[in-house]
Protein 1
Amino acid sequence: MSEDRQITVIAGGVGAAKFLRGLLGIYPNELVTAVVNVADDFRLHGLAISPDLDTVTYTLSEQVNPATGWGRVGETWRVRDELERLGGQTWFNLGDLDLALHLYRTQRLDEGATLTQVSLEICTRLGIKAQVLPASNQEIHTQLKVQGQGWIDFQDYFVAQQHNVAVEDLRFEGIASASPGPEVISSLKESDAIVIAPSNPFVSIKPILEISGIAAVLRERRQEVVAISPIVGGAALKGPASRMLEELGFERNSVGIASLYKDIARTLVIDEVDSDLSQRVESEGMRALVTNTIMDTPTRAAALASAVLAEVSLAEEDQQ
Ligand code: FO1
């Protein structure tokens, strides 16, 4: 099949994980690298939690809870229930199996391992052949300025308040001094294609792009970059992406996504229900690729991955 045509996927949580699972179903896994957002990471109960990395690793190891898209399938909640009885913090649901991963990561970080090392260790143990790389080993914390409350932390906005408040502004604490994790820049430079996963452009992709040097590589390699719109028919399949587009002054559809990505990506993949927007996406200066982007089954996710590979000429027939 392929010799060494590498693909790097810039990834947030649930949407990115589904896309990656589809891609790994049809492409040599060791040629795929995911560069994953770490700006949602935080500490709770003294534990280091990395939600997007864990969503990706649980999904790729077929252990994710299919009902939520995050956390473990077959999870039990004995620790959380006991914490509740004690009056502890239970607003962020950590299941018993999931807690084991946070315990392991926290211990390894306390021993001096980097998040990249820990992530690679976890992937090896879970049998994941793709490289799952944290975007940075330094701490970056997304904060949102929300109506009537000022600046709040990401998980307060996303989980505690169920992203049910209007966002006025965003910032990524620590990003100015953060550097890309090991192999992030080299994998972006050496890949034959770069995919921006269908993740929230503001809170999943932006805190990767704003790490020193990353957006510059994408601009240089724009011809090989394909972005997948997370908006279908004016709504995000999951999370607050569509309302954030409007709140932050963009069109609440894939044209709004095109205006965000046009300088770093040649193609925007939009859903069939939005085919009427393809001309407007092209007026923004991007190629519009219309296909089904709803990854409700692994087979559909693989079909989307296959359409993306064809767009960058990495489809199987080109690899002989
Ligand atoms: N999302 C929720 O909406 N509620 C939760 O209680 C919750 C717990 C949780 C635990 C571990 C984990 O890895 C993810 C978890 N998520 C939860 C998802 C997470 O907050 C978001 O998906 C991301 O941070 C945004 O991409």
Protein 2
Amino acid sequence: MQLALCTWQEIDAYLTRSQGIIVPVGSTEQHGPTGLIGTDTISAELIAQRAGMVAGILVAPAFPVGVAAHHMGFAGSMSLRPETFIAAIREWAVSLAQHGFRRIYFFNGHGGNIVSLNKAALEITEEVNPGLDGNDALQCRVQSWWQYENVHALCQKLYPEGHGSHATPSEVAITQYAYPELIKSAALEPRIAPNGRFTNAIDYRASFPDGRIGSDPALANPVDGEKLVSAAVAGLIVDYQRFVG
Ligand code: NI
């Protein structure tokens, strides 16, 4: 169930049987020479909507821009400062809480959002819960699609080498499954990008000139993307249902 495609009466009715909702959270940032700039939003939204459809869970609109300052050396990347991101996420959640939502599951697609999402979750409960009795307290959960055990295992099996940490074949495969007509090809040199750290956007661009970190996205294909989506949907449903009790 997508919130955006419901009427207010349908949300009223949903709230009588569940106070839970999934909020997909993404990012708009470069994903190497073959990855879509919307990769993190596309993947979080697709998996959340699929889970919502299978299990009858309400899914909010995807939050499309994350904390991605380190990608700003590459054209098209967009970023929110952490405090802006936290404030916006908090206000989304407080809006939902005003209608009676009490289990807000932030389903994340971008590693750079995790610290800020956890901070936002803390601020949300601090804002909403005073004055509510224990049973009516709001809870938030933050989870990223690659963190489920079954997804992690599948990534290791599909990509024993060249998974890396940015513009990974797993995330590229998910977008290839979502948009098979937009599969990109480019020369990848070296085939597996270097691994390492960076301190800021300039250093990132200098150390990882094509945007990838440790990855070989040429390993991606839409068939594996479908497997990854199925695994993440299953992981999300189990974890969400445990969370909402
Ligand atoms: Ni990504």
